[in-house]
Design brief:
CATH topology: Beta-Lactamase
Number of domains: 1
CATH class: Alpha Beta
Distance between the termini: 46 Å
Strand content: 5-15%
Radius of gyration: 18 Å
Low-confidence stretches: 1-12, 204-216
Number of strands: 7
Length: 222
């Protein structure tokens, strides 16, 4: 069954064969729900195994899509969903290029994985995305450094649909326990940061909006 954006899975996916692993994931889902920030557990294809209500709330206004819902495969959402930039600020440089770099590394490790190969074919069918992947990505990594590819610790813009947050930032925290690692899963949490400064003496808060954007990743000249 396809899951709409904003709908949290009640059952982990894919379900491990081991009863102990299934029980662990069920309990971990309860634990994840207690986290106040958007948090998601992904497999090596970026398929969503578990996510919490805060994650669903972040993407609650995203329209339906046949293959790129944030609650199904987060990489596909970042790369292919037309609404991704409405939630993920500085979409190209802050989200697409780092995710493409991680995807390229995953393809090197799991080159025969059918799920990853399907994503690679979809990238190849988009001329702009393919040019970014094959030519622009190496140029971008050289320009910004390998550390920009790392998710853990990165601070990235968000456009939260809840007006209490609005245009804000999140720090991505990779906090994967050993048991999840052994299952081949990764957990990422988007720790929302209140970027609205408080001014004395009236203590009024204003939203600081950022507008940086990498408009073009040039391909090398022939």
């Amino acid at each position: 069954m396809a899951h709409q954006a904003g709908e949290r899975r009640s059952v982990p996916r894919p379900v491990p064969e081991s009863p102990e692993a299934r029980a662990y994931l069920q309990d971990y889902a309860t634990y994840l729900e207690a986290v106040p920030f958007p948090s998601v557990v992904l497999d090596h294809r970026w398929d969503v195994v578990l996510s919490n209500t805060a994650f669903a709330s972040l993407f609650r206004d995203v329209s339906t899509h046949p293959t790129a819902l944030p609650g199904d495969n987060f990489l596909r959402f970042v790369l292919f969903h037309p609404d991704a930039s409405s939630v993920l600020g500085d979409h190209e440089a802050g989200w697409c290029l780092p995710m493409l770099a991680r995807f390229a590394a995953a393809v090197e490790r799991h080159g025969h994985d059918h799920g990853l190969q399907a994503i690679r074919r979809d990238i190849a069918q988009d001329p702009i995305m393919e040019a970014a992947y094959r030519h622009g990505l190496p140029h971008w990594i050289r320009a910004v450094g390998e550390e920009a590819v790392e998710h853990d610790g990165a601070v990235r813009p968000l456009l939260h649909p809840d007006p209490r947050w609005g245009a804000t930032e999140c720090r991505i925290v990779g906090d994967t326990p050993r048991t999840l690692q052994d299952m081949g899963y990764t957990r990422l949490t988007m720790v929302l940061r209140d970027t609205r400064p408080v001014f004395a003496p009236r203590r009024k808060r204003t939203v600081r909006r950022t507008a940086s954007h990498l408009s073009v990743v040039p391909a090398p000249e022939a």
